[in-house]
Amino acid sequence: EPEVTQTPSHQVTQMGQEVILRCVPISNHLYFYWYRQILGQKVEFLVSFYNNEISEKSEIFDDQFSVERPDGSNFTLKIRSTKLEDSAMYFCASGGLRGQGAQYFGPGTRLLVL
Amino acid sequence: AQSVTQLDSHVSVSEGTPVLLRCNYSSSYSPSLFWYVQHPNKGLQLLLKYTSAATLVKGINGFEAEFKKSETSFHLTKPSAHMSDAAEYFCVVSGAGSARQLTFGSGTQLTVLP
Predict the structure, then answer these.
(1) A95 contacts in B (CB within 8 Å)?
(2) 3-state SS of chain A: helix, strand, coil percent to 5?
(3) Residue A88: beta bridge partners?
(4) Torsion angle of C-alpha atoms B8, A85, B40, B86, degrees rounded to 10
(5) CB contact under 8 A, A35 and B102
(6) Measured between alpha carbons, how far is B81 from B65 in angstroms, rounded to an integer?
(7) Under an 8 A CB cutoff, do B102 and A106 touch?
(8) CA–CA distance, A110 with A91 (Å, rounded to integer)
(9) How far apart are the first and last CA of chain A?
(10) What is the pLDDT of residue A98?
(11) What percentage of chain A exceeds 90 in pLDDT?
């Protein structure tokens, strides 16, 4: 069964450093998403991506964040200058259908900013 | 805007007894609703989805949920709990935009006692 994969599973970085989180969505999906879950808090939407551009983004997704689909398979989230409060589990998701289809999540990348 | 409220942060049942995890939603349109499960140190797995077809939705591992518009509820049930059901469960509503961002509830931690 196809699944979303994410690398790395864990990342530790120093405050102010740039990190890139990588995701390989399910191959025939068209919609891609990033969510995050700060420890003890709800899963929060960050951004959605379709047709090589951002469809929607939340207030969390400020100028320090960017997303890219550099080739036909990878989908990346870049945090330019990490802050302590960026420490969280980051989930990538993909969906095949416009509108009502479900989103399928990867296992997550746990980011720790020191 | 849409939201979900999971009425219980923790539910504890004995193995073999029924499970009921409660969820109420708020939406200004006909929502798509989902239940996801998260086992410890694992990603988010889709249990089931409601997308305006049958109001009683069957999912994986014997779970089902009933969409009740008059009560704005989407409770998750299972007739007989298994030890492997112990996990955190999230009720989720889909947004109205074309990319349908997901809004998560705060989660219900299910404990299954032997």
Answers:
(1) 100
(2) 5, 50, 45
(3) A111
(4) 0
(5) yes
(6) 15
(7) no
(8) 9
(9) 37
(10) 60
(11) 76
- Residue B87, classified by CB atoms within 10 Å of its CB into exposed (0-12), middle (13-18) or buried (19+), is buried
Q: A85: helix, coil or strand? A: helix
Is residue B98 within 8 Å of residue B105, measured between CB atoms?
no
B39: nearest CA partner in chain A:
A107
Can you list the residues of chain B whose pLDDT is less than 50?
Answer: none
Q: Which two structure tokens, joined as six digits, stand for A16?
A: 């102010």
Report pLDDT digits (tens) over A6-44: 999 999 999 999 999 999 999 888 899 999 999 989 999
Tokens found for residue A114: 């020191």
Residue spans of alpha helices (H) in A39-80: none
User: A61 has which bridge partners?
Assistant: none
Cis (ω within 30 of 0) for the bond into B79?
Answer: no
Q: Which amino acid is at A25?
A: P
| Residue in the structure block whose two tokens are 């100028």 | A63
Strand pairing category for B23-26 and B87-94: unpaired
- 3-class DSSP assignment, residue B85: helix
How is residue A5 written in tokens?
Answer: 């994969």
> To 5 degrees, how large is the angle CA B26–CA B31–CA B37?
85
How far apart are the C-alpha atoms of A36 and A3, rounded to whole Å? 19
